[in-house]
Design brief:
With 538 residues, this protein is mainly beta. The protein is built from 1 helix and 44 strands. The strands form 10 sheets. Strands 1, 4, 36, 37, 40 and 44 form a 6-stranded mixed β-sheet that branches. A 5-stranded antiparallel β-sheet has the order 5-30-29-28-27, with no helix packed on it. Strand 23 and strand 24 form a beta hairpin. The longest helix has 5 residues. It is globular.
Length: 538
């Protein structure tokens, strides 16, 4: 089977992609990510061993910028990404007058629970482990710093698409995914289907309290599990009939705080108290995104849409305006009581009494500016899940882990949970590369002397660099030979996005290559991944 691609400029700035898969023709514009242009059908790539005796890769590996510069018909010279220097970029935090919200009304439970749960006894000491979740499974670090990979292929994990994680005080790891929950404790797996709480939706957030109870949030509400029985609550108990839980946090008094975009709800010994605009929160629009517990045992929250910080005094919420990045993706508080904000494009911002410090690729050796998940441990470290790797900050420097240096199922980390003081950080594993090959043809003829790039991170659709991959910490380039074949002979293990240059425009090779929803191609250690022939339609 061939995959047909059109890299022509169709009367605009964006290149269009056409792929023929079976009898279906798909189109994609590199700069148009609308659902109508999404490609969802594809086939698996062919993977063969790389290091068999006598095997040789027919073409050279990634080319240098000088080679590209020597060919004026290709792309302008690609310079290596600038060296990353550790440092701090100071940004002042705005300190307008605080807004004292009125005391909230006490609300009784608005939906009768189906079962009254009795708390279980916590187990001490807390396990010092960490787990990360991806769309292809999860991986955990033991207290001694040993990796353990979990996928449906090598464990009893029900599905690979992890949405959230929690680690209970008894050492149980809770994997929340599109099919419900899996609970792993001392090598014993327990699968809980989302049908348990009569929901067809995936779990969006999970939290484990110190008493051992597990809470799960989903579109229709949330549920509590005490180890044997479930208690179900409709989302009306959260003070809003239309919004679902987006974050949860358990405090030192074993109370649960639940965040929706518009409200904050407290569950304490069987009773619900809600805080909403005009009733415990300021009479303002809100876009709440994260909640965490400070060193005094009281919660704090962040409003990502309207740049506000919220603190609970014990009786009321106090709100103030703050300077923070656009596109807030996560919120956490570390052992030093500093607040961490993750963002879509501006790395992580750290707030302390001295102001705000930006941690990104320019000011430190963060591997990506797109932060997808944040967690902290009792030893003072901060764990960031980014679009390209796991990053851990020990207060002095960042340590990065990727698929080629750790047992990770993917470099895109969407969930993190860390218990206690966290595990010992292992040394990165020795990388073992793989290879990626493919062929570009047009009207049956080889498409030679064409620049092809593979990117480790999200492609830059705003074209802020000379190519889609140029703004990334690492990327690789090759030129097709007289047969139209391109070869990357020494790629680190990982999942890659591909693009090629035609007539001065870049086209992303997006569909028909793998089952990855982000249209990435998996390169495995010691193997050659052959994506086959790609026919460019003029």
């Amino acid at each position: 089977m061939k995959h047909y691609i059109c890299g022509a400029v169709c009367g605009g700035l964006a290149a269009a992609v056409w792929l023929s898969v079976g009898d279906t023709l798909w189109q994609h514009s590199f700069f148009d990510r609308s659902p109508s242009n999404r490609l969802t059908s594809g086939t698996d790539s062919l993977t063969t061993p790389l290091s068999e005796p006598g095997d040789e890769i027919p073409l050279s590996g990634p080319i240098s910028s000088s080679q590209i510069a020597g060919n004026p018909d290709l792309h302008p010279p690609i310079s290596s990404p600038p060296p990353v220097r550790a440092g701090e970029t100071q940004r002042s935090e705005a300190t307008p007058a605080e807004i004292a919200a009125p005391s909230p009304p006490e609300l009784t439970t608005q939906a009768e629970p189906t079962t009254q749960a009795e708390p279980t006894t916590p187990v001490e000491p807390e396990a010092a482990i960490a787990c990360v979740g991806t769309a292809f499974g999860a991986s955990c670090l033991s207290e001694e710093g040993e990796w353990e990979l979990y996928t449906p292929d090598n464990s009893r994990l029900s599905t690979a698409d992890i949405r959230d994680l929690a680690i209970c005080s008894n050492g149980a790891v809770v994997f929340a995914h599109t099919a419900g929950l899996d609970i792993l404790q001392e090598d014993r797996w327990t699968a809980i289907s989302s049908e348990t709480w009569d929901s067809d939706s995936a779990v969006t957030v999970v939290e484990c309290l110190d008493d051992g109870t597990i809470w799960v949030g989903y579109d229709e509400g949330l549920s509590q599990f005490d180890g044997s029985d479930w208690t179900h609550f409709e989302r009306s108990v959260l003070g809003t009939p239309a919004s679902s839980p987006v974050d949860m946090a358990g405090d030192t008094s074993n109370r649960l705080w639940v965040l929706t975009p518009q409200t904050i709800a407290l569950f304490d010994r069987g009773n619900w108290t809600t805080y909403s605009p005009g009733a415990g929160l300021p009479q303002q629009d809100t876009g709440l995104v994260g909640i965490a517990i400070g060193e005094n045992g009281r919660p704090r929250a962040r409003d990502g849409d309207f740049n506000r910080s919220l603190r609970f005094t014990g009786e009321r919420w106090v709100v103030r305006d703050v300077d923070q990045p656009a596109g807030v993706t996560g919120f956490a508080i570390d052992a030093r009581d500093s607040e961490w904000i993750g963002s879509e494009e501006e790395g992580a911002w750290v707030y302390s009494r001295g102001g705000a410090v930006v941690q990104d690729r320019d000011s430190s050796n963060l591997s990506s500016n797109q932060v997808l998940a944040i967690a902290t441990d009792a030893s003072g470290r901060t764990w960031l899940g980014t679009s390209w790797g796991l990053n851990v900050f020990d207060g002095r420097e960042w340590i990065a882990y990727h698929m080629n240096t750790a047992d990770l199922p993917d470099n895109r980390i969407v969930a993190i949970a860390v218990a206690g003081e966290g595990p010992r950080l292992p040394e990165p594993l020795a990388p073992l590369p793989g290879a990626l090959v493919g062929t570009l043809v047009q009207a049956g003829e080889p498409f030679a002397d064409t620049l092809v790039e593979v990117c480790v991170d999200t492609l830059d659709e705003m074209r802020r660099g000379p190519s889609p991959c140029a703004n990334q910490l690492e990327f690789y380039a090759a030129i097709t030979d007289i047969d139209g074949q391109f070869t990357f002979s020494a790629l680190p293990t990982g999942r890659y996005r591909l693009a090629f240059l035609k007539n001065g425009e870049w086209t992303q090779i997006e569909a028909g290559l793998s089952d990855d929803p982000l249209s990435r191609v998996l390169v495995t250690p010691g193997n050659i991944t052959n994506i086959g022939s790609l026919d460019i339609i003029p």
